[in-house]
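Quick one from the shared queue. A colleague (R.T.) flagged NAD-dependent epimerase/dehydratase family protein as missing a structural entry in our internal table.

Convert sequence to structure tokens.
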Amino acid sequence: MNNKTIILILGACGQIGRELTVALREIHGTSHVIASDRYANRTDVPNYMQIDVLDGERLKHVVKQHGVTQIYLLAAMLSAKGEQDANAAWNLNMQSLITVLNIARDEKLDKVFWPSSIAVFGPRSLKFNCPQETRTDPETVYGISKRAGEYWCNYYYEKYGVDVRSLRLPGLISASAPTGGGTTNYAVNIFHEAIKHQYFECYLEESTVLPMLYMKDAIRAIIKIMSAPSEKIKVRTAYNLGGISFAPCDLAAEIRKYIPDLKVVYQPDHRQVIANSWPASMDDSGARNDWGWAHEYNMAAMASAMFESLKAIKKPSLDHYPEFLIEDVAAI
Ligand code: AKB
């Protein structure tokens, strides 16, 4: 670790943020990793501060005051929620990125991480083994903001030398935080409902295959791309990232190995349209060749790890999360 590294995580209470904060603190130490989110009074999280990513002045002040050298910008409105308020989604997703890129340029930050998504693809993209370069044509405001954001990252790198790195993340599965506002959330929620009720109402059709990743793999990917030497990063928009692909019926069959009585009812809603527009699997050979990405968890290993983690939680349902963290889930 570099003693001068001071990391600021924006969106540290979210699904990625919670695990990334822990992982980065294991590497750099808690005092070198500032966790921040829009929530006040997180006295349970050490080295935490409340920051609204749309408040550029405060963000700049914090960066200067604490000598921040790297920012991980994780705050965003995801695909399904974004469709409910397109302007708010665009504003949050774009304005926060431009603000962070400007600060990175002006304050000469070492590096920035900003996640893109498989949502940059659309119905005219290749469905299987979707390549890095293909038609994108995203059909959600979230996907449009991610595609535009990729170009902004490339622009700031080319024009100002800002070392911003990005991954097109697939659906992420984890036990440590609820999911908020995404289309791929069913793959997390099914575990909770299977344990609690042995019953799950799935908002996607049983055969809808989507690219997914266990969170531990995603965190490894983020840490790996961020620690790769700059010359290894050949894609300055965002790298395709894949790992596993499955449909709700595949996941249900895997979960039935642990909970044989699980009943799943399929009731596709507006999220089905979004899922239909996304690829089923990703060609992430660029990430594998350029900086050595490799996933470790297949679906069986992911499910086993999920049950292991959820066993450690006394009341394994969405109820065990603090109220403020489930507000986005409840909104969908
Ligand atoms: C979503 O479902 O919106 C996200 C994503 C694929 O970026 N999980």
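Residues 7-169+216-240 form a domain with the Rossmann fold fold (CATH 3.40.50.720).
The chain is about 40% helix and 15% strand.
Added to the table.
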